[in-house]
Amino acid sequence: MMPAPLIVDVIAELMSSLIAFSVGYYALRGYRVARERVLLQLNLSFTLVGSGMLVHVASKLSVILPALRSPRPPPPVKFVPVVRVGYLIYFAAGMVGYSILLYAYLKKARGFSSLLLLLPREYDPAYELLLLFILSAVTAFSVQNYLTRRSLNSLMVSAGFMLIAISHLLLVMTRAGPIMLMLAGVVRLAGFSSFLAMVVRVERLAGQRKAQE
Question: What is the largest CA-CA distance in the chain?
Fold first, then answer.
């Protein structure tokens, strides 16, 4: 028995994909008649987004359909490699597709005031979350590298990335009070200090080895 939320998700995404293709189709027809560039950009954007969703749906169906014929319960779909690849394609297509729309709106606005809407406020939680996400991935790889090498340098690198990631987490919570901003600055300083200590140590060890040769 497949989980109901998963079934609804697949059906909804498939229908959204078909609607996106329909939007792209009618936008192209409109462009051929009116010759307005924004309609062509709309066609490219929704066709890309629809294609990404369709690939994502197909990746999930490649896991779901065989599982329906099996007596064993299916594995969690989000951990299956083919689904993860499908989601990556969906994400990339969405990024490009929505960027086309953003470009179209900015070009149409032709005003500096429109660009100001895109400028983040200092320590905007949305931007800090994006940085936190990237740093979390980097931290995970650095920790994996430390667990493999078990060296002091790799430990210092992991500690540095982890502290910097924590500082961005604290910046996300700055609305809780100015203490978070202060803590974020101190933790970030400790993270960069860890990197400085690591590179100084590497430079000194390299100098000692060269002197012994």
Answer: 79
- The C-alpha angle 76, 79, 83, rounded to 5 degrees, equals 100
Chain centroid to Cα 202, Å, comes to: 33
- The answer to whether the beta carbons of residues 146 and 198 sit under 8 Å apart is no
Segment 165-209, tens digit of pLDDT: 999 999 888 877 778 888 988 999 999 999 888 888 887 877 777
| Range of weakest confidence among 5-9, 34-38, 66-70 | 66-70
Q: Which amino acid is at 179?
A: I
Give helix 125-149 / helix 152-172 axis angle, nearest 10°.
Answer: 160
User: pLDDT: is 78 or 17 the higher one?
Assistant: 17
Enumerate the domain spans of the chain.
4-116, 125-212
Q: Which two tokens stand for residue 57?
A: 């749906």
